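Q: Please design a sequence for this.
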């Protein structure tokens, strides 16, 4: 086989994989099905990979604009975090990341904070174990208003570039902490599955006694294991 043919085959395999990748992401941000299918059927080329990538980013932007109008903060957090990660990887994971990717990641972090702000004034940082900066903040609680002014994520100097640290609901009164499903903790039930960290998120903690926040004891009253309560007795 000639070198040229071999190169062409290698290119086509790479283009096919890359185009599939962008089209799969496009689907997560509700790109129109007809446009996705048209690109799936187009002949393989660098241009068709680029078109699939554009379809993804324009659809992500549209999804974020709609979510912003509806105040669906956790949707914005999920879309922007995934977009920042995908474009970062596509750029060859440069450290430090370029400004536009930092901006996307920060938009995700502030949207996660705004989602938490619907039930609390503070948020807990769940940090990665990748470096000293990320480990140092792990488990610490910060005022959301301060974080929105001066965002600390992604941690500067983290060797991962866009670090894996994220925000979760915290509590000011550890004595009364109890575990609550994320879907009950955030008042955006329709989008709860898109909370930062997705379904594998650490247990979100109910917020008690936070001035201005929804009274967690009322909102999150669910079945609690109480050894003193024998529960309903069968008759
Ligand atoms: Zn970090
Ligand atoms: Zn780190």
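A: Design:
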């Amino acid at each position: 086989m000639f070198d040229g043919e071999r190169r062409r085959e290698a290119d086509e395999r790479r283009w096919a994989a890359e185009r599939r990748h962008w089209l799969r992401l496009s689907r997560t941000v509700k790109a129109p099905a007809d446009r996705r299918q048209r690109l799936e059927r187009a002949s393989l080329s660098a241009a068709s990979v680029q078109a699939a990538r554009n379809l993804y980013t324009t659809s992500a932007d549209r999804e974020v604009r709609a979510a912003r109008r509806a105040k669906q903060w956790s949707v914005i957090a999920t879309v922007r975090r995934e977009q920042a990660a995908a474009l970062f990887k596509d750029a060859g994971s440069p450290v430090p990341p370029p400004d536009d990717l930092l901006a996307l990641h920060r938009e995700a972090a502030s949207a996660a904070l705004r989602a938490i702000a619907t039930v609390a004034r503070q948020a807990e940082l769940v940090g990665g174990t990748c470096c000293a900066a990320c480990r140092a903040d792990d488990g610490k609680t910060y005022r959301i208003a301060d974080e929105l002014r001066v965002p600390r994520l992604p941690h500067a100097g983290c060797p991962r570039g866009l670090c894996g640290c994220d925000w979760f609901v915290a509590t000011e009164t550890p004595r009364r902490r109890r575990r609550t499903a994320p879907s009950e903790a955030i008042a955006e039930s329709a989008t709860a599955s898109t909370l930062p960290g997705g379904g594998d998120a650490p247990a979100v903690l109910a917020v008690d006694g936070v001035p201005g926040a929804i009274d967690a004891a009322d909102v999150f009253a669910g079945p609690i294991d109480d050894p003193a309560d024998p529960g309903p007795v069968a008759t």
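Q: Thanks. Anything notable?
A: Residues 174-235 have pLDDT under 50 and may be disordered. Residues 70-220 form one domain.
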